[in-house]
Design a protein that fits this description.
509 residues, alpha/beta, Arc Repressor Mutant, subunit A, Aspartate Aminotransferase, domain 1, Aspartate Aminotransferase, domain 2, eight-stranded mixed sheet, four-stranded antiparallel sheet, 18 helices, 40% helix, binds pyridoxal-5'-phosphate, DNA-binding transcription factor activity, transcription regulation, DNA-binding
């Protein structure tokens, strides 16, 4: 049987519809949303579904056949090719391919110089010196009781999480937590999981590989558009409420209430990815979503951005109905992660070392964020920073007429690597474009030079009439997803920097 394809076409876009169709299908294949050998609808059927002529779909299919993504067999229609190129690396889990460039401002990195080496060594040494048979033996897969207790205490104090030690599961980072949760959701009969669009492409790969189909839900100036969630048929959603990744928009209070109501109504779960909340400015910091509905929200945190990805350390706080299934899945896969590292982390928390460390790092992050924002406004006239003062990257929306892909190429030619909005989007027809500038790895002097080079690239490419933003109707909402945002609401988005993501190559400037 052929599958229905959920493709959004933007009829206002200057991108031809055949190209939009082709790009959408290619992306679904690359992100494992369409598995090898899946049969596609006939060109006539898809044309009718999309409200376009059959020849448009034929053109898209032919191009994808030529590229090796699809195969057409007489009598059996068009299908995804049996082996479509080697799977792309997961950007969540694997380093991005190194590209020769002086400044790597792509999201996903962290600053190795931040890692508190001395304090960590002290904590680890103290733990190892004191370790007895139980610390050196197998703990429960969810982690040593003392660590779960320390994590519960910390998360209650700092994030308002309603945490009890027996609901905490320590993980090898968010990635493992997500993989375990996907397995549990599959066991419980879920087939679809909703994700923010834009969001992290690596996360979507994880889900697909775990047998769940990720479905995008747009994000606007108030965060995830919960009304759209009902349309997906999903009963689970992954969100970044503290600062939406990558736009930096915080989930508005009314949306949080709607999201919790949605979870109750569909008897579903919300997975709250809180990995960047440490970098939300104090004035904008709100308690975790989980505090509103601990029975419906899985809270997920990670040490990757605040300490180092190499620790592979993360934690889940799990609603009671999910905990037995999660423990079962976990124990059938591994016996937990390094107890000694976890105990060192617990000691770091309890001695106040982590709080001190965060104060130092936050201060530096704030300075970099302000510098990038100021440079952007000065050197890239017409761009608009979206989101709150949060995270490790700034989402810079491009003015109408500025070609995102051309800008990224021009930036690379000037030795600056940045991702554009397209990297994060599922619905690629959405406009306007953006550049997302991570300030996680490059120090301030290097950032200045990188932003100056980006500014030159911008002037080369975005030379249209100055500062004409996508106002009104469809385009003005577009930077934050395909959902209509009225001008008044859009203006409420603080004009400051926004947030970041996964691992990669550090190139101090
Ligand atoms: C959206 C998102 N969530 C969470 C994480 C943290 O993942 P992990 O804890 O597996 O390193 C990342 C890492 O970049 C990320 O991009």
């Amino acid at each position: 049987m052929s599958r229905h394809l959920e493709i959004s076409i933007d009829r206002q876009s200057r991108i031809p519809i055949a190209q939009q169709t082709r790009d959408a299908i290619r992306r679904m294949i690359e992100e494992d949303m369409l598995q090898p050998e899946t049969r596609l609808p006939s060109s006539r059927r898809l044309g009718m579904d999309l409200g376009v002529s059959r020849s448009v779909v034929v053109e898209a299919y032919e191009q994808l056949i030529a590229e090796g993504y699809l195969v057409a067999r007489r009598g059996s229609g068009t299908s995804v090719a049996p082996s479509v190129r080697p799977p792309r690396e997961s950007v969540l889990a694997a380093p991005q391919r190194p590209v020769a460039a002086r400044w790597d401002l792509r999201t996903g990195g962290c600053d190795a110089s931040w890692f508190p080496r001395q304090e960590w060594v002290r904590c680890l040494t103290a733990v190892i010196s004191a370790a007895g048979p139980s610390e050196l033996g197998y703990a429960t897969p969810a982690g040593p009781p003392a660590v779960r207790q320390a994590a519960a205490g910390y998360l209650s104090r700092v994030r308002g999480v309603r945490a009890r030690a027996d609901r905490v599961m320590m993980t090898a980072g968010f990635a493992q937590g997500l993989a375990l949760l996907c397995a549990v959701l599959r066991e419980r009969g879920h087939e679809v999981v909703a994700v923010e669009d834009p969001g992290h492409p690596g996360e979507r790969q994880f889900m697909s590989r775990a047998g769940l189909r990720p479905v995008g839900v747009p994000v606007d100036a108030d965060g995830l558009v919960v009304d759209e969630l009902y349309r997906t048929g999903a009963r689970a959603v992954v969100v970044t409420p503290a600062c939406q990744f990558p736009t930096g928009v915080p989930l508005a209070a009314h949306r949080k209430a709607e999201l919790v109501e949605w979870a109750h109504r569909v008897d579903g779960f919300v997975i709250e990815d809180d990995f960047e909340s440490a970098f939300v400015a104090a004035a904008d910091r709100a308690p975790a979503l989980q505090s509103l509905a601990p029975d419906r929200v899985v809270y997920a945190g990670s040490a990757s951005k605040v300490l180092a990805p190499a620790l592979r350390l993360g934690w889940l706080v799990v609603p009671s109905p999910l905990m037995p299934g999660l423990e079962f899945v976990r124990s059938s896969r591994d016996f937990g992660c390094s107890g000694l590292e976890q105990l060192a982390f617990a000691r770091f928390l309890e001695t106040g070392g982590f709080d001190r460390h965060l104060r130092r790092v936050r201060d530096e992050v704030r300075k970099r964020r302000e510098q990038v924002r100021d440079d952007a406004l000065r050197l890239l006239p017409g761009v608009r920073p979206i989101g709150a003062a949060s995270g490790l990257q700034t989402y810079l929306e491009l003015p109408a007429g500025c070609d995102e892909a051309a800008l990224l190429r021009a930036a690379q030619a000037r030795s600056v690597l940045v991702h554009g909005a397209q990297f994060y989007r599922i619905n690629r027809a959405v406009q306007p474009g953006a550049v997302v500038v991570s300030y996680a790895t490059v120090h301030r002097p290097g950032l200045s030079r990188a932003m100056a080079a980006l500014g030159i690239a911008y002037r080369e490419v975005c030379t249209g009439p100055p500062v004409r933003h996508h106002r009104g109707g469809k385009s003005m909402r577009t930077g934050l997803g395909a959902h209509a945002v009225d001008p008044a609401r859009e203006l409420r988005v603080p004009v400051t920097a926004s947030p970041p993501l996964g691992p990669r190559v550090v190139r101090p400037g």
